[in-house]
Amino acid sequence: MTASALTRPGERDRLPVKISQIDWRLAGLLAIVAGTGAMMLYSLGGQSWQPWAAPHAIRFAALFVMMLCLALVEPRWWYALAYPTYGFILLLLLLVEFSPLGYTAGGAKNWLDLGVTRIQPAEFMKLGVVLALARWYHGASAQEARFHWKLIVPAAIVGVPFLLVANQPDLGSAMLIGLTGVAVIFAAGLSWKLVVGLGAAAIAFVPPFVMFGMHEYQRNRVLTFLNPEADPAGTGYQIVQSKIAMGSGGALGRGFGLGSQSQLNFLPEKHTDFIFATLGEEFGFVGAFALLLCFAAIIVISLRIATLSHNHFGRLAAAGIVATFAAYVLINGAMVMGLAPVVGVPMPLLSWGGSMMLTVMIGFGLVQSVRVHRYLELPKSRGVI
After folding, report:
1. Phi-psi bin for 365: left (phi > 0), alpha (psi -120 to 50), beta?
2. Which of 247, 250, 278 is closest to 264 using CA atoms?
3. Residue 170 phi/psi, 5° resolution?
4. Contact 304/314 with Cβ under 8 angstroms?
5. Which residue has the higher pLDDT, 139 or 330?
6. Per residue in 340-354, pLDDT tens?
7. Against a cut of 0.90, is the pTM above it?
8. Left if phi > 0, otherwise alpha if psi is -120 to 50, otherwise beta: which for 57?
9. CA torsion, points 47, 52, 55, 61, in degrees to nearest 10?
10. Helices marked H in the chain
């Protein structure tokens, strides 16, 4: 199908044409990563599909179909629902904070107990921030995007959920919301002078924030990161065991299902936050590097899709989804290798977790939608409707 044909509305609106325009390379890479996750969860479950591997695989299969369906939805619908989606997820965050539905797990009140299931609204807020910012900047002028008093609006879009999530306290999700928001604002054309100034202010703010703004357990995590060997059986246990697991894998790994740190339960959170360490232990440097290459390919392909969009909303929305995904990978990878504090960020599609996988696959449904409808033009408007 030629580009000239796709620019004709009557042609590009046909379902077979839309399906042909889905980026199947991207879809295949996502399936490879999720399949690797199912394989690792099978290993961690004692060579059994239960309790993690089968649900992980079934969940991904269902969400993969959902992603393909979302790819066929025109960006104008994503555009129309951007503000309502953000507002609804913000309401869920407020319910977590101020209603009896808020549920505490792992020392953080970051779950919403709906009776039949529990959801983590902070995960969905990353998508909400991307949509709201992309909608706002679609109607903004170049001057407003560079430096203008109206930047208080996108700052509030990011800042309000950031503060709510940080107060739960869930530093990992708060960091992801903040990084995602900053990435979209930067991609929209923020002035370099302002970027440098804000970066310097953020660096200067870190020490007093660590000492006076963090909860005690969060501060301990930062101090432990700086010197994990000071308390290897206590606060430094997670990082030390993760580094042992990664290092013991060597070049080719100890073999599938033969990782001592994970199989003997020395490695904490082995199926969620530290599953990448399990992969490194069982498949070594080669296996871990191959997975990182898959992540890199997903990011590069998605960024390419963002540049193809003929409307600013699509470009920024796709770029924001990529930024969220990249932040997941970078933070988790650095965390398990001892290069960053333990902040509870999972590895996307590899780790066990329903809310995270749902958010990621909805996000890539949006990226695929931008690709399928890349020639679509959207009117410039900031109104709610």
Report:
1. alpha
2. 278
3. -135, 85
4. no
5. 330
6. 777 778 999 999 888
7. no
8. alpha
9. -80
10. 3-6, 9-12, 15-20, 24-44, 53-71, 75-98, 121-138, 142-146, 152-166, 171-187, 192-208, 216-226, 237-248, 260-263, 275-308, 312-336, 354-372
* Tokens linked to 380: 């410039």
- 333-337: average pLDDT: 88
Looking at the predicted structure, is the pLDDT value of residue 139 above 80?
yes
H-helix or E-strand spanning residue 102: strand 102-105
Confirm if 138 and 79 have CB atoms less than 8 A apart. Answer: yes
Instruction: Assign 182 to helix, strand or coil.
Output: helix
Residue with more model confidence, 147 or 18: 18
The segment with the largest mean pLDDT, out of 113-122, 162-171, 273-282, 296-305, is 296-305
How far from the centroid of its chain's Cα atoms is residue 206's Cα? Answer: 23
Task: Classify residue 42 as exposed, middle or buried by CB count within 10 Å of its CB (0-12, 13-18, 19+).
Answer: buried
The gap between the terminal CA atoms of the chain, to the nearest Å, is 34
CB 12 within 8 A of CB 3: no
pLDDT > 90 fraction of the chain, expressed in percent and rounded: 41
Q: What is the pLDDT of residue 241?
A: 85
With contact defined as beta carbons under 8 Å apart, do 374 and 313 qualify?
A: no
Q: In this structure, are strands 108-113 and 118-119 parallel, antiparallel, or unpaired?
A: antiparallel
Q: Decide: helix, strand or coil at residue 348.
A: coil
Determine the residue type at 86. Answer: Y
For 111, the 3-state DSSP assignment is strand
